[in-house]
Design brief:
The chain is built from three helices and six strands. By secondary structure, it is of the alpha+beta class. It is elongated, with a radius of gyration of 20 Å. The mean pLDDT is about 85.
Length: about 110
Amino acid sequence: MQEAILYVKSTKFDLVSWTMPHRDHWCSAGYRSKGTHKTFDEEDREAIETLERSSIPHLIIDLSDCPLTFRMKAKLQGINKSPTLMVGSEKVKGLREIMGFVSGKRQQ
């Protein structure tokens, strides 16, 4: 079976904390970044979980982490909705359609 590619988009949130000023350096106070947290919306998360439970070999690509040229190439290929599953030349767009596709492959 050909490897399926699932295209999703994530949202990143900065985790920040407030730092108290040092007694000698008033300018040392402020917000500091402690890192970032990546999250997926409900449809993307459920599509990922559905593919993980299936026996379909797949690759997950987060378009939010990709360079602009890659995102433009994906858009030109017709990947304009998240989540989108590509298996060969077949595009399956949206969570319901992906779930139907995966359940159809399980029955085969």
